[in-house]
Known about the structure:
Blueprint: H1 15-18, E1 21-25, E2 28-33, H2 41-52, E3 58-63, E4 74-81, H3 89-103, E5 107-111, H4 119-122, E6 133-134, E7 138-139, E8 142-144, E9 147-151, H5 166-178, E10 185-191, H6 198-206, E11 211-216, H7 220-235, E12 240-245, E13 250-251, E14 258-259, H8 266-274, E15 278-281, H9 286-293, H10 298-301, H11 306-320, E16 331-334
Helix pairs in contact: 3-11, 5-6
Amino acid sequence: MKIEDFVDPYLGKTWGDLGARILTSGSQIAVTLGYPATGMVDELQTRLAQFLNTDNIELEVNFQAPRGRGFEHVKHVIAVASGKGGVGKSTTAVNLALALDAEGAKVGLLDADIYGPSQGMMLGVAQGKRPAVKDGKFFEPIRAHGLKAMSMSFMVDDNTPMVWRGPMASGALQQILTQTLWQDLDYLIVDMPPGTGDIQLTLSQKVPVSGAVIVTTPQDIALLDAIKGIEMFAKVDIPVLGIVENMSVHICPKCGHVSHLFGEGGGDRVAKELGVPLLAELPLAMSIREQADGGQPTVHAEPESDISHLYRAAARHMAARLWNGEQAAPKISLVDD
């Protein structure tokens, strides 16, 4: 067996076909993947050892984001969207961003919900804190929990409604996106407003978006709206990287009873029908809501929890979908001991 014939667990393609860079020295193997995978090094080592039929390997996993459709120093822009409100889109966006950071990527988070920005609160940014301005026209993103963040909530008071028509909101989005000094980012996660309106069209037409993630619940009406969101991105040639199903199941903390309060299997069914992966099925858990409301999202507050591992697996899979195999052939080097 050759290392380059190992099939990537997320993409179903060999590392050779994907263009992984592989360096070997005796039993030591270093591989550079096109998605961050700090959290699954042990799993990959076990799988690779089984594939090579040996127990004597030490695996080092590195990461280099592939060339993307991004702008300036941002390699990939990923939109996190939903067809309707109330499905946990913003909570998913911040936890996916934190998960990518935990996996080893350089990550930014843009709150594109101009009318109802919430990322400032979810990241624990103090009310009234404003981004610094450089050269009179560029914003310095606010750093929170390892992320570079920008939101309309940093510009206005939390209680100030944005009474703007569509073109004004779209113009504001373009301004905070293009006039923020993101510097070098592997991924910029964009928390979209719900629906399929002006903001969504502005982002898809004016910004080189690499892909989108659709957030839904198992409820039939939410799934119908999720399908509309997927079709919208298809019309503007933005690939859907996958679906995240929130509130999939409720497990009673006292007796362990499992309840599917909003239906069962809907996200998986839609994912199969539309040919996109189901990235995660997240439980209906009070802790997710409480931690986000308290400015300490789950992946930051409880990094080793089961829910955090679900977010991290979803983030890895999402990022892996951007590793399209159009890179150079794998480079395999042998180093003498």
